Amino acid sequence: MPNLSNQRRLPAPAAALAGLAVLLLAGPGTGAAAAADDVTYNRDVAPLMQRSCETCHRPGSIAPMSLQTYEEVRPWARNIRDKITRPDNDPDRMPPWFIEKDIGVQNFKEDISLSPEEVATIAAWVDGGAERGDPADLPPPIEWPDGKDWSFGEPDLVISSPDHVLEAVAADWYGLLDPSPTGLTADRWIKAVEVREVLLDEAIVERKSGDLNLFVVHHAVISARERSEVIQTQSRPGGDRGPADLFSVVHEVGQNATHYPEVLGVRLPAGSSLNWDLHLHSIGVEVPFRIDVAFKFHPEGWEPKYSGRGGMISYLTFDIDIPPEEPNAKMEGMQLVTKPGILMTFEPHLHSSGKRMCIEAIYPTGLSEMLNCAGYNHNWVKVYVYDEDHAPLLPANTILRVTAWYDNTLNNPRVTDPRNWKGYGNRSTDDMFLNLSRFVPITEEQYEEELARRQGLERSRVTQDND
After folding, report:
1. How far apart are CA 443 and CA 450, in angstroms?
2. DSSP string, 355-395
3. Which of 123, 202, 309, 321 has the most crowded CB, counting CB atoms within 10 A?
4. Rounded to whole angstroms, how far apart are CA atoms 430 and 254?
């Protein structure tokens, strides 16, 4: 670990500030697994299912089955054990949280992953006969909002796009929908935002291998910018992004809610409208749909420490060359951070062949640090939001090295034909190499202030560990 007394050497590396990963692996929940014959659903397994599974596995949500009761979970017990015991970065691991737990920062908001002890508890329950247990041990059911699949509970505001119908068989569609007024009479700071694609006739969609046919929205750029002739679209790059704190988000297939860091100000203005810049792909049947966006706001009067939605130069390269039947194609790119700032999120974006991405910081001192690695599944394009005390603090002139791996074989169910060469393209069946991590630039004075705060936290942690 570098000398923390020298403020200009390094901003206390992110992994070091995260603490010892081995201490974090225990996570919340049941602790060490009991003997197989002592583990029951009601006491040990149900709380884990509520925390890590029910967000998706409940009626009206996007998972193929509900897992809210013993009667619903028991028939799937062995399948659940198979899914949760896969490696952290396995694209088909459940729950869909693919951060590798032995590398880099491990402190994230809304972490739905299971700790190794919790995985062992569920596996022991399955191996011990999947017993129900004492009814008195069963936790009360979660009261999910009626009719809406919002992971953060009841939203403060929901805005819907106009209804749109996508043809059954057509080229990928790029275009703008009419704006949707927010109806706000005062500016509001956004605490969290979640986007859902709503199929207006769910019966027409059939699940198939890979599940990329479950959604028609490849991605949607949703923003509160004023619409003009120079607004950026998929087919016409450039244009005015508007004020730095103005709401803008890129929703991607299977994405989780974005819980903004408590220090970050992202604003939804009074009198604004949401603009819809879409990339759609046909799935063989005509699909009527809309997009719903749910907002959680900070209380009125709240003021942020840092203002700005953040963003990185995301297109690392358009020159992608993935050979046929290649299980481990590798791409690598560099991004220069010209101003000091905080990496608020880690968000890999590949496409159907993608299977893993790592992000590494090379500091001006020459020292390098692996910040994170994660598996990738294009059905579940995840945004990993760092905890404020552990979000990587980057000095000016840091280089971010981003590395991605691709599996263009039959072992990847999201690849339609592995006999074909794969290159860059906007379709889900093509490939990309993007780092969409949210970087918020700060001043040198703010950098020094945050560095001193982190150093104080680290000294306190070391003192506690030594007591």
Report:
1. 10
2. EEEEEEEE-TTS-EEEEEEEE-BTTB---EEBPTTTSPEE-
3. 309
4. 18
Rounded Cα gap, residues 321 and 39, in angstroms = 49
Least confident window among 25-39, 236-250, 324-338: 25-39
pLDDT at 355: 94
Distance between CA atoms of residues 350 and 406, nearest Å: 9
H helix or E strand, kind and range, residue 70: helix 70-73
The rounded distance, in Å, linking the Cα atoms of 457 and 256 is 30
Model-level pTM?
0.79
Q: What are phi and psi of 223, to 5 degrees?
A: -145, 160
Q: pLDDT at position 207, please?
A: 55
3-state secondary structure of 288: strand
Question: Between 28 and 202, where is the model more confident?
Answer: 202
- Residue 186 has a CB neighbour count (10 Å cut-off) of 9
SS3 of residue 445 by DSSP: helix
At 9 the pLDDT is 34
**Confidence bin at 228 (pLDDT 50/70/90):** low
Measuring CA to CA, which residue among 258, 220, 226, 260 is closest to residue 242?
226
Tokens of 221: 């750029």
H/E segment holding residue 330: strand 326-337
Taking CA atoms, 271 is separated from 138, 188, 222, 232, 304, in Å, by: 47, 11, 16, 21, 21
Which residue, 341, 401, 345, 457, is CA-closest to 12?
A: 457
> Which helix or strand (DSSP H or E) is residue 456 part of?
helix 444-466
pLDDT tens track for 81-96: 999 999 998 988 999 9
Tens-digit pLDDT profile for residues 352-382: 899 999 999 999 999 999 999 999 998 888 8
Under a CB-based contact definition with an 8 Å cutoff, are residues 349 and 311 in contact? Answer: no
Please, which contacts does 178-182 make with residues 24 or more away whose CB atoms are closer than 8 Å? 178/276, 179/227, 179/273, 179/274, 179/275, 179/276, 180/273, 180/274, 180/276, 181/272, 181/273, 182/157, 182/224, 182/268, 182/271, 182/272, 182/273, 182/274
Integer CA distances (angstroms), 29 to 9, 95, 116, 340, 464, in order: 38, 15, 11, 37, 23
Bridge partners of 440?
342
Q: 125: which 2 tokens? A: 């329950």
